[in-house]
Amino acid sequence: MIKKSVTKKLKSIVGEKNTILEKEELKAFGIDDVLPEIVLSPNNIEQVSEIMKLVSKESLSVIPRGSGTKSALGNKPDRGNIVISTNNLNRIIEHGASDLVATTECGISLGSLQKELNKENQFLALDPPHINKDATIGGIIATNDSGPERLRYGTAREFLIGIKVVKADGSIFKGGSKVVKNVAGYDLPKLYVGSLGTLGIIVEATFRLYPVPEYSETYLASFSSLENCHKTILTLLNSNLVLTSLELLNPGLTALLSKRNNLDINGSEYCLAIGIKNVEKAVKDQISTVKKICEQSGGKGVLIRGSQEEKLWEDVRNFPSNIVKAESAVCKASILVTQIPTVLNMVKQLSDENGVETSVSTRAGNGICIIAIRGDASSITNAVKNLRAFISTLGGSLIIQETSTEIKEQFDIWGDIGSGLGIMKRIKSNFDPDNILNPGRYI
Q1: Among 41, 191, 211, 431, which residue has the fewest nearby CB atoms (within 10 Å)?
Q2: Parallel/antiparallel/unpaired status of strands 368-374 and 101-105
């Protein structure tokens, strides 16, 4: 419980208009039924620092928040006295177009940042979900979220070259550089990628950028045989083609996306979505090769471009939040590329055995499977338990990204971390000894 005197001090730091205390408004910031007592929206990094200095002395818990698009990720918080919203930290500090580098505050949405960078024909090569729902730069770093184009460009770790973080005690950490070439040593900025706000509040970041590709096309190929589909994947990955994205959709998802996007593909088969962005001649030459490779394994394809292509990849990026409305569990499995057919066959088996519906989008070149399981709570729970156990036997891992509180309470959301748990605990102890940042939400 926050003392009235502390509430008054917190309110004075950010001002009345940047403070939320009314219970009805606080509900929008709750996580798994844990409501904050106050929401603060600081105007600058110095105010974030002042808040943290005060709350650390009072041993109050803090939940950092951007736009809330990933608020369902993680365990139920142990407590949540204060939410610090970064929405007012939305300024682009510097764009060195000639150096392909940009520095920005982390409350800015990726969509807004891209619009500004596009004016110089540049972009930040990240395509996570919820771009159209104002996913923020800080949230994307904190969750290490990515999309289909990670095949070509990688994740936030590859682009992040500098960072500024307000630590649990209110001190400000600055790491990295504003140039792509940096000194050797331990890369501390990378430590915050995927930390889910448990090591500090990310307030500023510097990224290296890319020129916007000139042209884009996507080839969709459906396969009656999963074996032939996977054979095609391996052929594509071992070729000289420079693919931007390579997504494998199971029949459940193929049918949904085919209907939503008016695609001329068989909705009852596995489908490969192969996207290439480059100069126009290179794209057309490579797509021609892609078509031949797919046809050699029995794939029947269609070429899309323009608005239809953009809409398809937007749906794939945002899957399953844009498609799945019924009660569900959304899981993210990390496996070897060679294990993809085995896991997809297991998903189908679990679907049949538990009476659940499954839709799967697989980053076929990275071994990342996004799996949506729909049904009643009991059936979903059984399916997830069996799927996690199976993936564990393969040496892979499975986390539960999103589900109801009822189902979430049946699981350890993050699964078995293995030998890395000890060092993760020591890092947390050093960065946040009193466990006031997002307590309980991470491992």
Answers
A1: 211
A2: unpaired
pLDDT digits (tens, 9 = 90+) for 257-288: 999 999 989 889 999 999 999 999 999 999 99
pLDDT at 400 over 90: yes
In the CATH scheme, what architecture does the domain 215-318 have? 2-Layer Sandwich (3.30)
Asked if domains 92-211 and 215-318 share a fold, the reply is no
Q: What is the CATH number of domain 92-211?
A: 3.30.465.10
Reported CATH class of domain 4-85: alpha beta
Query: Domain limits of the chain?
Result: 4-85, 92-211, 215-318, 328-411
Strand residue runs (E) in 224-292: 245-249, 270-278
Three-class SS of residue 26?
Answer: helix
> CA 221, CA 218: separation in Å to the nearest integer?
10
Q: Which residues contact 438 (CB under 8 A, 6 or more apart)?
A: 61, 62, 63, 64, 74, 77, 196, 197, 198
User: What distance in Å separates the CA atoms of residue 375 and residue 231, rounded to the nearest whole number?
Assistant: 32
User: Starting from the edge strand earliest in sequence, which strands make up the sheet with 160-166, in order?
Assistant: 92-96, 101-105, 201-208, 160-166, 172-176
pLDDT-derived band at 183 (thresholds 50, 70, 90) equals very low
Whether the model clears a pTM of 0.85, i.e. scores above it, the answer is: yes
State how far Cα 134 lies from the chain centre: 13
- Asked if residues 168 and 434 have their Cβ atoms less than 8 Å apart, the reply is yes
Report the candidate in 339, 375, 335 with the shortest Cα–Cα distance to residue 359.
375
Neighbour count for residue 226 (Cβ, 10 Å): 19
Let me know: does 94 contact 102? Beta carbons within 8 Å: yes
CATH architecture of 328-411: 2-Layer Sandwich (3.30)
